[in-house]
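Shipment paperwork, digital attachment
Item: protein structure file
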Amino acid sequence: MRIGVRCALAALLLSSCTSVDTEPDSDARPIALTGAVLLDGTGSVSIEDAVVVVDAGRIACAGRRDACGVPGEADVVDVSGHWIIPGLVDAHVHFSQTGWVDGRPDAVDLRDLHPYEQVQARLKSQPDRYLRAYLCSGVTSVFDVGGYPWTWTLPERGESDPLSPRIGVAGPLLSTIDFWLNLPAESQFVYMVDEETVRGAVRYHAAQGTDAIKLWYIMPPQPPDTARVAGLVRVAAEEARDAGLPLIVHATGLWEAKDAIRAGAAVLVHSVFDDQVDDEFLALAREGDVIYTPTIAVMEGYGDVYLRQPIDSRYPLDCVDPATRSFDRPDAVPEDRMPPFASDPAVAERQRARVENALANVKKIFDAGIAVAMGTDAGNPGTFHGPSVYREMELLQEAGMSPVDVLVASSRVSARALGREVEIGTLEAGKRADLVVLTQDPTLDVRNAAAVAWVMKDGVLHERRTLLPLETAGG
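Attachment content:
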């Protein structure tokens, strides 16, 4: 059966032919995508007029037409004039946050208008809108690197639901400060008050089947209790290592980042923005085989909210559900509720300087041969779940990475950060069939990754239009 793109579009509008939307089971017919330019995520040269054969939810073959025979029983989808890339992987998200300030009252406190307990109850009971936004944006896998214990239930959903990305989860964060943003009956931040607490927390996470240990390393470069805090970080690293779990560390200062690597961090999340990374940092990161996930766009997101700038000027929001999208307006936060520093020009200038520093550090780190992954910190105010990946990818390109390098960072390297590089991240035989079909060439400009026509996760092929929020799609 041959199904052209035009015919599939007509199926949605006129019901005049059959579109491909097949559950990945052993009885399903193979699918062959033919005629597109293939970028397999390995960094290899693109392949013109390629064929990708999918069988039982996995890649059977991806390559030149003469190397990948199309099975006679396959449903053939002609995607000539398009580009195929691996499904994008956002290596840093938070499902315990909404993308606006109602999920972060420490940023702007509107709990009298949006009770935090109710916000969290809704996030727990209704994750669908965020899951769908990721798939609509071409994101087929995500890593929730810190949130409430209920997030540990999400990976099962990600494996079984064709409308959800696959999901890794780190659970509650271990924190070097006693942060207050918790609920009365459960915590998303565990204060590392002493060694016993740290060891108990890591062992509890391991017992829950967590995918990683996330540590919030918050402190000035040299506070009075540097030795005590650094010692507890090493206790956490030791317990994580004994449990066979990677240690992910939030470190935005150069001192903390170096100390985290020395302790055994596998992944650094957020940019070092207080200083330029130096030769010592680069040597430590190379020796430790560290993955660096910059999350630069999130700094812009906070600025957009505080300065009342439209988020949709940075990336498209049509994959975002209308309720969340409705907050993208100047009066979403009453003017008298904004914190005093929100409109301070000096604060805005410092933030711009931090972004510039982060961009410069990405270039240094990438050129030094250190792995750079793509992650957005989505869920924070101004960083919406799903399409914020486009802005993060654009910023990596602005930092000096080539479009192909950014695509690799957003697939293969991010899959490695998720601990799933054996299964996903590249389009190679035997891997899960997660891919995106684009209408524009992403090797010319990585912003073209937003030109999504089709998304496949686990062999299920969806036209993007069918993944839009129901209210947007008209039903």
